[in-house]
Specification:
Layout: H1 6-13, H2 16-28, H3 34-51, H4 61-83, H5 91-113, H6 123-150, H7 153-157, H8 162-175, H9 181-217
Helix pairs in contact: 1-3, 1-4, 2-4, 3-9, 4-6, 5-6, 8-9
């Protein structure tokens, strides 16, 4: 966030579904059908259009590398839950343990690097913290873990394409930011790409169901 323009950051973060698709093919043997590939391409194209207004800034290499590693790590986490079959673990418990372990690692590091000398312990601090801790992290990642347990990792990760779209929307709604043609076109492509990707496997499952029923009857 400190080193890379917002558009570049949203574009790099949205490579997570692409990493997920590749890792799913390698670790799970999950083939990407043509329709799913089209959905991935449409979603990434929409994200690029959304990010285009701020792509003119100079991006630091360390920021780009950090975002790429972050997207790869996020994708691997989603695929790993499917690969090692975490379906028997409650998504709420799974996310709760993850967040506690994250805090154990990050809080001492933050205290060491930043300290609390300049921190103002006010409602203006705790209200945003409560929001980011509960709806934005706990609830969101519990829902993500639930989706991964019931669908493919590629389908679940497709929701990452919606993050920049909603970011642009809330920027317009709450901060009166201008909603131009690029934002509207990019948002429409993102939604279309996610729809195509999420429905592709469902259609393939519907086509294979009669075949499976025929085999069972034999």
């Amino acid at each position: 966030m400190n080193r890379v323009p917002a558009g570049v950051a949203s574009l790099m973060s949205s490579t997570m579904p692409l990493f997920t698709a590749v890792l799913s093919a390698v670790l799970l043997g999950a083939a990407i059908n043509r329709l799913a590939g089209v959905g991935l391409a449409i979603g990434l194209g929409g994200t690029a259009i959304l990010a285009s207004p701020s792509l003119s800034g100079e991006a630091a290499a360390v920021g780009i590398i950090s975002l790429a590693v972050s997207a790869l790590a996020w994708a691997f986490g989603n695929v790993y839950m499917k690969w090692r079959d975490f379906s028997r673990v409650s998504p709420v418990m799974l996310v709760g343990v993850q967040l506690v372990m994250s805090a154990v690692v990050l809080v001492p590091f933050a205290l060491l690097v930043e300290g609390t000398a300049e921190t103002e312990w006010t409602v203006g601090l705790f209200a945003p913290l409560l929001y980011t801790a509960i709806p934005a992290n706990a609830v969101t990642f519990a829902l993500m873990a639930t989706i991964v347990s019931r669908a493919t990792p590629t389908q679940a990760s497709a929701t990452a394409y919606l993050i920049p779209a909603f970011g642009v929307f809330f920027g317009w709604l709450l901060r009166d930011e201008v909603l131009g043609a690029a934002e509207v076109a990019g948002g429409a492509l993102v939604v279309a790409g996610v729809y195509v990707l999420v429905t592709s496997n469902a259609r393939r499952a519907e086509r294979s169901q009669p075949l499976a029923s025929g085999i069972d009857s034999l």
